[in-house]
């Protein structure tokens, strides 16, 4: 176990607990830039890391808060899981013919980080708009919600499998946009419940491709779990309105570095 990996896991867990931002947005760039892991290994390891750490959150949301809309989870999964499997099949095909796709994964990671940065900024505006929306007016995209939810799931399936980023921040903003009357707690719980099978399938696929470092995974888990616990307790004391723009700016800069 490397103390650097454990400390990085703790730091990311702390930020996840305070801000609620998905760990992939923070962990994957850290593994690539700071520790020099190949993008494929960073993505594969982080996907299994996400699947494990998010599972506890769903038990809380479903068991304690009853805040998971399983119908929406099913719609998202209808798009995301086949998309993830198809993406894994494509990655396996390119690996077999010896084609290096590191640059494609790096570019996808950059795009996902830029979208996440915008999502962090836009999320608060969507939440405020949803809170004041007239309950007697027809809901946005009322007749297109189901097919659009499936399409969003499809996009997330590709993005998450290629970059390990997007299941949290992007999924949440998409749900807030499509379902403005859905309480924020249910949006978070629903997005979290959908992220587990998606990250688990994508992570398992990357494991089969040889893209998972289990020593690294164990170290990150040792550090992150107490970090998430401490961060969750600190979140009420740290002003989110200052922290989120700073975090969004950092993700934007990292994303641009990957893309350019």
Question: Can you give a write-up of this model?
Answer:
The protein is mainly alpha-helical. 80% of the residues lie in helices and 0% in strands. Helix 4 (70-96) packs parallel to helix 8, helix 5 (102-132) runs antiparallel to helix 6 and helix 7 crosses helix 8 (184-208). The protein is globular. The mean pLDDT is 83.
Give short descriptive properties of this protein.
mainly alpha, 260 residues
Summed up:
By secondary structure, this protein is mainly α.
Strand content: under 5%
Tally of separate domains:
1
- Give the SSE order as H and E letters: HHHHHHHHHH
Largest sheet descriptor: none
Number of strands: 0
User: In percent, how helical is the residue content?
Assistant: over 70%
Assign an overall shape.
Answer: globular
Cα Rg: 18 Å
Q: What would you call the structural class?
A: mainly alpha
Distance between the termini: 34 Å
Mean pLDDT, to the nearest integer, reads: 83
Contiguous helical run count: 10
* Poorly predicted runs: none
């Amino acid at each position: 176990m490397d103390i650097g990996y454990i400390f990085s896991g703790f730091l990311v867990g702390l930020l996840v607990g305070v801000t609620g931002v998905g760990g992939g947005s923070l962990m994957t760039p850290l593994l690539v830039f700071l520790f020099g892991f190949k993008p494929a290994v960073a993505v594969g390891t982080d996907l299994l890391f996400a699947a494990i750490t998010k599972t506890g959150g769903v038990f809380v949301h479903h068991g304690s808060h009853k805040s998971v809309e399983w119908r929406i989870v099913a719609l998202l999964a209808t798009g995301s899981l086949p998309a993830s499997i198809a993406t894994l099949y494509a990655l396996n095909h390119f690996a077999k013919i010896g084609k290096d796709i590191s640059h494609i994964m790096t570019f996808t990671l950059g795009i996902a980080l830029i979208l996440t940065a915008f999502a962090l900024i836009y999320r608060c505006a969507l939440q405020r708009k949803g809170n004041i929306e007239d309950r007697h007016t027809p809901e946005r995209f009322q007749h297109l919600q189901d097919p659009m939810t499936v399409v969003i799931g499809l996009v997330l399936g590709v993005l998450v499998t290629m970059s390990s980023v997007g299941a949290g921040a992007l999924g949440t903003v998409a749900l807030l946009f499509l379902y403005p009357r859905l309480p924020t707690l249910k949006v978070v719980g629903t997005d979290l419940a959908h992220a587990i099978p998606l990250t688990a399938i994508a992570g398992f696929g990357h494991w089969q491709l040889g893209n998972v470092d289990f020593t690294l995974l164990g170290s990150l888990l040792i550090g992150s779990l107490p970090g998430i616990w401490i961060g969750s307790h600190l979140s009420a004391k740290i002003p989110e309105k200052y922290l989120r723009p700073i975090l969004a700016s950092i993700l934007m800069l990292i994303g641009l570095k990957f893309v350019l």
